[in-house]
């Protein structure tokens, strides 16, 4: 069993700090803009006026229209290529060359994925015109654990979001369980 | 709007109930730019073993953020939102978000309010989590 092998855990430990998803930061295809904010506010029936009403926003603590904080990840999502999206398992764009760092787990039989948690931290709200980029690295991989779903490893990655000047505006930690599916 | 002076540890936030339809799920997925077919294509979701399309995580956090600022008002800033994921949310259910103030502290001229929150549907807890809001003092 590769998974109980200490050299396997050492390989996993070696992945901490490895970038996830291509090399370098992913840059949002469009700067923070009012149409996408309005669409988002409508979808969540969110009437907070600082997102869409300049007369309220300019006299608020924010001083201008701001984007809903939870849109942070949305700004850097790639423009999808719809053709073939189902065949790619929902991946919005064809995968970059080579396999990501988690291929090590897939090859060892931990092929199933379950998202278990998400944590956002916001340093400042984004304003119209802000350019956003995101860089994701693996932060931690647990030892092998027995869970309700099966045996697997918890993987945490952290995405750092920056504005056009390179200032960090927020972070997101995302935790998944990579596990061996029941036969 | 909720003023810092009026908030107390133990306060319950007004519950938010969302009648979850396929439209609510699809609108949230596309507004958050998540085009995974499990969030808009029932045939695809069925082939993946799910009984229907289900809400994407960014939508869940989007609804939670609305729940927080519906209570705290436009002067509030969400500085943190951490959730643990539970059961999925399918069309035809009601998602009810509830929360309670669990801690408060002043930091300079802002006040930080920690909220424990829970979003539940007919299957159980969809998410549980904690959030921090900054309010002017």
Task: Explain this structure.
The complex is a heterodimer of chains A (183) and B (137). Chain A has 183 residues and is of the alpha+beta class. Chain A has a domain at 2-30 and 81-179: Roll (Thiol Ester Dehydrase, Chain A), CATH 3.10.129.10. Helices cover 17% and strands 26% of the residues of chain A. Chain A has helices spanning 6-13, 34-43, 54-57, 72-75, 103-107, and strands at residues 26-27, 112-122, 133-141, 145-146, 151-162, 168-179. In chain A, strands 1, 2, 3, 4, 5 and 6 form a 6-stranded antiparallel sheet that branches. In chain A, a hairpin with a 5-residue loop joins strand 5 and strand 6. The radius of gyration of chain A is 19 Å and the shape is elongated. Chain A starts with 5 loop residues before the first helix and ends with a strand. The mean pLDDT of chain A is 90. Chain B is built from 3 helices and 5 strands; from the N terminus they run βαααββββ. The model of chain B has no long low-confidence stretch (mean pLDDT 96). In chain B, 23% of the residues lie in helices and 41% in strands. In chain B, strands 1-3-4-5-2 form a 5-stranded antiparallel sheet, with helices on one face. Chain B has helices at 22-31, 42-47, 57-72, and strands at residues 12-19, 77-85, 94-107, 110-121, 124-136. Chain B has a single domain (4-136), classed as Thiol Ester Dehydrase, Chain A (Roll), CATH 3.10.129. Chain B has 137 residues and is an alpha+beta fold. The chains are: A alpha+beta (183), B alpha+beta (137).
List the helices and strands and how they pair.
The complex is a heterodimer of chains A (183) and B (137).
Chain A: H1 6-13, E1 26-27, H2 34-43, H3 54-57, H4 72-75, H5 103-107, E2 112-122, E3 133-141, E4 145-146, E5 151-162, E6 168-179
Antiparallel strand pairs in A: 1-3, 2-6, 3-5, 4-5, 5-6
Chain B: E1 12-19, H1 22-31, H2 42-47, H3 57-72, E2 77-85, E3 94-107, E4 110-121, E5 124-136
């Amino acid at each position: 069993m590769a998974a109980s092998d200490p050299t396997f855990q050492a390989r996993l430990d070696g992945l901490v700090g490895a970038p996830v998803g291509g090399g370098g930061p992913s840059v949002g295809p469009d700067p923070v803009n009012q149409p996408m904010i309005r669409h988002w506010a409508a979808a969540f029936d969110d009437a907070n006026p600082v997102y869409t009403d300049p007369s309220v926003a300019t006299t608020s603590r924010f001083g201008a229209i701001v984007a809903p904080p939870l849109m942070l990840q949305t700004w850097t999502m790639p423009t999808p290529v719809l053709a073939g999206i189902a065949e790619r398992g929902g991946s919005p764009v064809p995968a970059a060359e080579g396999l990501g760092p988690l291929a090590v787990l897939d090859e060892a039989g931990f092929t199933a994925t379950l998202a278990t948690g998400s944590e956002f931290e916001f340093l400042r709200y984004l304003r119209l015109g802000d350019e956003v980029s995101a860089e994701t690295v693996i932060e931690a991989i647990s030892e092998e654990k027995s869970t309700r779903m099966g045996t697997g490893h918890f993987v945490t990655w952290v995405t750092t979001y920056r504005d056009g000047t390179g200032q960090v505006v927020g972070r997101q930690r995302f935790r998944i369980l990579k596990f061996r599916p029941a036969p | 709007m909720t003023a810092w002076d009026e908030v107390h540890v133990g306060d319950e936030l007004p519950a938010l109930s969302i009648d979850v339809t396929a439209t609510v799920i699809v609108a949230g997925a596309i507004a958050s730019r998540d085009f995974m077919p499990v969030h808009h294509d029932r045939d695809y979701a069925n082939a993946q073993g799910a009984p229907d399309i289900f809400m994407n995580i960014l939508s869940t956090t989007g609804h939670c953020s609305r729940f927080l600022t519906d209570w705290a008002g436009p002067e509030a800033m969400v500085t943190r939102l951490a959730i643990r994921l539970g059961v999925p949310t399918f069309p035809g259910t009601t998602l009810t978000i509830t929360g309670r103030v669990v801690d408060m502290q002043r930091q300079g001229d802002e006040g930080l309010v920690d909220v424990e929150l829970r979003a539940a549907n007919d299957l159980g807890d969809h998410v549980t989590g904690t959030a921090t809001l900054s309010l002017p003092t």
